[in-house]
Amino acid sequence: MAKTLDPAVAEVTTGRSGGLLVENVSAGYGRHIVLREVSLTVDGEIVSLLGHNGAGKSTLLRAVSGALKMTGGDVRYRSRSVRDLDTARVAQSGVALVPQGRGVFPTLSIEENLRLGAGVARHTGSERQLVTMDFVLDLFPALAGRLKERAGTLSGGQQQMVAIGTALMTSPTLLLLDEPSTGLAPVLVQTMLDQIRTVHRELGIDVLIVEQNIHEALRVSDRAYVLRLGAIVREGPAATLLDDADIWDLF
Length: 251
Ligand SMILES: Nc1ncnc2c1ncn2[C@@H]1O[C@H](COP(=O)(O)OP(=O)(O)OP(=O)(O)O)[C@@H](O)[C@H]1O
Description:
CATH architecture: 3-Layer(aba) Sandwich
CATH topology: Rossmann fold
Keywords: Amino-acid transport, ATP-binding, Nucleotide-binding, Transport
CATH superfamily: P-loop containing nucleotide triphosphate hydrolases
Number of strands: 10
Protein name: Branched-chain amino acid transport system ATP-binding protein
Largest sheet: 6 strands, mixed
InterPro entries: AAA+_ATPase, ABC_transporter-like_ATP-bd, ABC_transporter-like_CS, BCAA_Transport_ATP-bd_LivF, P-loop_NTPase
Organism: Nakamurella panacisegetis
Strand order of the largest sheet: 6-7-8-3-9-10
GO molecular function: ATP binding; ATP hydrolysis activity; branched-chain amino acid transmembrane transporter activity
Oligomer: single chain
Bound molecules: adenosine-5'-triphosphate
């Protein structure tokens, strides 16, 4: 039986009506069904989405961002359905996706990449707090002295910073991060996730993060969901899941 998350109920349970509400979403590729009635919320918090390879984590982020049409259910953001919006419209509503594999424009400079994000922000016409280039460069000082360099010449970790920086420059209210630590040296994973925490704390941006580094992801998250074979099999406060021996058995 599908779990129904009525927006009014979500407002009571989360204390706000402005967050993300994924309601019984089913989606896949042609006849390959990947997500089966997945429901989750993100509201004023950092939420991790964990699960094995192939569990459907990226598919869920694609469905939320408008890149993949869902076959069932609904996605509401700030009380409005984004189900039928394309990626550009979803972005304008405040949702920024950083896809796995970074997604920078390699032949453009760091500065040009970041300004592409600012271009999206200009079209929103909303009251959102604008994220400045200075904020991004304070967050990722490694980029500051290299603004004119082509993004394609940077290390994997630095390209990841450009991708996240570009998403931030759209001045989002919700950031969807698909494995932001991919390709980073272990010593940098912690730093990257701490920077995500800084973004949430200082700008009030909500974050839904898919991560393979389960321990590190839970450490910076408020809550988490575990996806298995396209269905949510566990959810709860991150601190509780960190202490839950059973969750480690799921992996
Ligand atoms: N473009 C696509 N066309 C067809 N099948 C796809 C496509 N993208 C993903 N899949 C399949 O959908 C299923 C879920 O993939 P998805 O990428 O969402 O998993 P994931 O949980 O993000 O795992 P990973 O950590 O490996 O990225 C997998 O079986 C995958 O092979």
